Automatic annotation (TrEMBL):
Keywords: DNA-binding. It comes from Marinobacter lutaoensis. This is TetR family transcriptional regulator. The keyword DNA-binding applies. One of its GO terms (molecular function) is transcription cis-regulatory region binding. Residues 37-56 bind DNA. PANTHER family: HTH-TYPE TRANSCRIPTIONAL REGULATOR PKSA, HTH-TYPE TRANSCRIPTIONAL REGULATOR RUTR. Residues 14-74 form the HTH tetR-type domain.
Length: 209
């Protein structure tokens, strides 16, 4: 008789997989991908190291899962801020502010998602999500052109410029090697975010907002 996996076994496997994901997430959030060791993840999850590789083909596959989940959460928050009754410029400003403020509240995870040197597989994921942000911003810019919030422009090119500007401007403050947590704590975060938003919106509108 062929072996048939029981529902109880499927549930146990699913629970083990989720514990592995949760433990990997905690490691990345506290020390980035570089410091997320498989042995530590296994210990936190309460499984053997080999069990991780029964759920994920490689360390890179596990980290790609964490990257996708974490980044999609941030993309969703930006998308949420882009919806509302205000004009497109105000909604875009709210979305950019949310992106920056959330990054500064969780600097280690934000650094891991935005700029930490990673394996090629994760770099591909990063490019996909930069594109997702750009597509959201492009839609908002097109709406702004229609409602008069923004002058006529290449919405696609402008959106990619926004993604580059906001991500690059946060690299220094978030970097554990360039600034460190102690330095980040001393940064005037409100001024940083306000300056970043003023730059982005001035680039879109041609005027200071």
């Amino acid at each position: 008789m062929a072996y048939r996996e029981t529902e109880k076994m499927r549930q146990r496997k699913a629970q083990a997989r989720q514990r592995i994901i949760d433990s990997a997430w905690a490691c990345v959030a506290s020390g980035g991908f570089r410091n997320a060791r498989i042995t530590r993840i296994a210990g936190l999850a309460g499984v053997a190291t080999g069990t991780i590789y029964r759920h994920f083909e490689s360390r890179e596959d596990l980290f790609a899962e964490i990257f996708r989940t974490a980044t999609q959460r941030e993309v969703d928050k930006v998308a949420e801020a882009l919806h509302g009754p205000a004009d497109a410029a105000a909604r875009l400003e709210a979305a950019l502010r949310r992106f920056a403020e959330r990054a500064l509240r969780a600097p280690t995870m934000a650094w891991a998602l935005i700029a930490e040197p990673v394996d090629p597989q994760l770099e591909e994921e990063r490019l996909l999500y930069r594109r997702a942000y750009a597509e959201l911003f492009e839609t908002a810019i097109r709406e702004g052109i229609e409602d008069g919030s923004f002058p006529d422009q290449d919405a696609r090119l402008s959106s990619t410029c926004l993604v580059g500007a906001i991500a690059e401007s946060l690299v220094g403050p978030l970097s554990p090697t360039l600034s460190g947590q102690a330095t980040l704590a001393n940064i005037d975060k409100k001024r940083l975010v306000d300056t970043l938003l003023a730059f982005c919106l001035q680039g879109l509108t041609g005027t200071r907002r």
